[in-house]
Specification:
By secondary structure, this protein is α/β, with parallel strands linked by helices. It has 2 domains: 182 residues, Rossmann fold; 85 residues, 2-Layer Sandwich (Hypothetical Protein Yjia, Chain: A,domain 2), CATH 3.30.1220.10. 29% of the residues lie in helices and 27% in strands. The chain contains 9 helices and 12 strands. It has a 7-stranded parallel sheet with strand order 3-2-4-1-5-6-7, sandwiched between helices. The longest helix has 15 residues. The chain is globular and about 55 Å long.
């Protein structure tokens, strides 16, 4: 049996940072990493692929929604033959889309008979203390991620006060009384995500392809952005945009742009990126506000 570990968490909580840590933690193990992104643009796959060869990407939705689950199942079926020719694959670590509801995972494995080949080991959910208290009341999948998890990594604890952290932990325990909570900065924790499997009795339904809670956009960025103008524009939509990430041109090479409820970061990319494009995920009910921001970005309102 091949261990199957699931890493969940809302957009911008730190999932890719954690997967990069897992690459180093299990450097001597034969693993495959599967990165699932809600946006149609694959951003995280190349980031992880820069440090690990055995990376598969499934962009364009959630692996637990009706439009992508068939491809997800097919990918899991192909892994033993595709990656296990030299040595058996010991584990598959999946970074689920930030909007995913993982409670359907046991049903999916059972119905497809993939449970004959994969054993669900650990479900880890990463939580951002800054966005969780508000979004958990409006986005049901955030609660479902906590309900399904064995361990919650309460990330970014260095930027929040003790009262905020205590309040979020109390919320987490109300949602899932028995969950293990680990505080971390930049997801610097050591968990055995390939531990012995266990049956959880999770029950969930496959999500529809078009989730009304979310809107998706992509924007090509052919010229450098002015950081000050961009920050000012983002301030006006900070309650509308859940996530914006991708690669943009800079004065001396590609920059990686990452925006979430925790703020904006712009950093030099590890290597030049051929596609300067941003993936944006926003509130579905506030689609028009998000669309106006996207159109302004396309018109060059934030260009240098």
């Amino acid at each position: 049996m091949t261990a199957l570990s699931l890493v969940t968490g809302f957009l911008g909580s730190g999932k890719t940072t954690y997967l990069r840590r897992l690459v180093n933690q299990y450097r001597d193990r034969r693993l495959v990493f599967l990165v699932n992104e809600f946006s149609p643009v694959d951003i995280d796959g190349p980031l992880l692929g820069s440090v690990e060869d055995d990376v598969l990407s499934l962009p364009g939705g959630s692996i637990f929604c009706t439009c992508l689950v068939t491809e997800f199942i097919s990918t899991l079926k192909s892994i033993p033959e595709r990656f296990g020719r030299e040595a058996p694959v010991e584990g598959v670590i999946i970074e689920a889309s930030g909007i995913a509801n993982p409670k359907v995972v046991e049903r999916m494995l059972r119905e497809t008979r993939l449970d004959e080949h994969y054993a669900l080991s650990t479900i880890v959910t990463i939580v951002d203390p800054g966005t969780f208290p508000v979004l958990r009341h409006t986005l049901p999948n955030i609660v479902a991620q906590v309900e399904a998890s064995d361990t919650v990594i309460l990330n970014k604890v260095d930027v929040f006060d003790a009262e905020t952290l205590k309040s979020v932990e109390e919320d987490l325990r109300r949602i899932h009384p028995g969950v293990r909570i680990v505080r971390a900065t930049y997801c610097e924790v050591a968990l055995d995500v390939l531990a012995m499997p266990q049956y959880r009795g999770l029950e969930g339904e496959y999500a529809p392809c078009a989730d009304p809670n979310y809107a998706r956009f992509t924007v090509k960025v052919p010229v450098p952005l002015d950081e000050a103008r961009l920050r000012a524009a983002l301030e006006g939509v900070r309650t509308v945009l859940f996530r914006m990430k991708g690669f943009v041109p800079g004065p001396s090479g590609s920059l990686y742009l990452d925006y979430s409820g925790s703020g904006l970061t712009l950093a030099p990319a590890a290597e030049p990126h051929p596609a300067h494009e941003l993936a944006i995920i926003a509130s579905g009910p506030r689609y028009e506000e998000a669309r106006r921001f996207v159109e302004a970005l396309k018109r060059g309102a934030c260009n240098a």
